[in-house]
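Quick log. Single chain, no ligands specified.
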Amino acid sequence: MTIEVKPYGTCCNLDCAYCYERESRAEDCKNRQEPDVEGMIAAAKASGDRFAVFGGEPLLTPKPMLERFFAAGGNSVQTNGLLIDEDHIALFRKYRVGVGVSIDGPGDCNSLRTNADNTELISRNITRLRDAGIAVSLISVMHRRNAMGERLDIFKQWGERMYEAGIQNINCHFMQHSEAVKEDILSPAEEKEAFLDMAEWLRGRPRLRWQPFMDIGRLLLGQKDEALCIWRGCDPYTTSAVYSVEADLAITNCGHVRGNGPNWLKADTAGYQRQECLKQTPQEYGGCKGCRFFPLCTGGCPGEAIDGDWRNRTVHCEAIKGLFRLYEDALLDQSIVPASVSGKVEERPKQGDSHGDHGDKPHGDLPHGDHYDAALLKGK
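-> predicted structure:
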């Protein structure tokens, strides 16, 4: 389970065009309360000793308050990287905080997030973090400005430079659809082509621990417990992989599923009605009936469902199926029977089952499964 504290809620210093919190942010920030720091820490530690400082942009939080969170067990933070200064770096080093930075690549690849000057500053800050010995992972949302033609080549070359700087982990996110960025949304065919291109490119680079590519291999080998939450049958009313503590001590769900709707309080009991319905609903009506990959992907993230309706399967289905087929063939070529063929996979998570990662959490501490990565990515 990822435990988040959100002292400044969804407030942010940027206005990324595709942000899933964008439309709700103005109202949230207008009504923002000053955080009850000790109460938030107590609420977070009731579910675990370690937690993430999250947002919005968590570095809007005053530094003395940040230090209190870090000292109490806040061992990771997810940031757009723009506000990082020497004081932040000193705090990260002192408390061994892992830093996740959200950036979609160099230059124009990142232009849906911010301008060129800001992108350059964020890039310099990433270098400063690594020079200080701080663990860094990256999250990049994929769209037409970084995943097509020459831009995709630029993105991959940048990913190699990040590896040379000591950053193995890049989570290539599917973009949550929004009218605000409709011109930059990859079509299903374009998205599939981009992700398959990256998967083939990664075959010869097994040290690059990129998502969702690693998870596809894990799932096909029946290692569902090691996969991210988007594959694990998320209930939008409990989001059992994410436990968020708000400034007023309310316990809420994953913001990725919330989208621009109400900030629901977390339900007491997880249910799997979405998955049961998807399994029985024909694919032409937004379901997953008959898909051999359904027990592995469970319909994807409800926050990325077709038409924004969590009752449907993910809008990224075509790309996901393409990745499953690619890695499935790689395993079969090695005489390894994947779970999609053997059926040896748990279709419905156990009650309360969860995993310590979701959309924008740093994922550098994931178990990586070295026993199969190289074979899958090299296609041996």
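Residues 295 and 347 are 5 Å apart (CA to CA).
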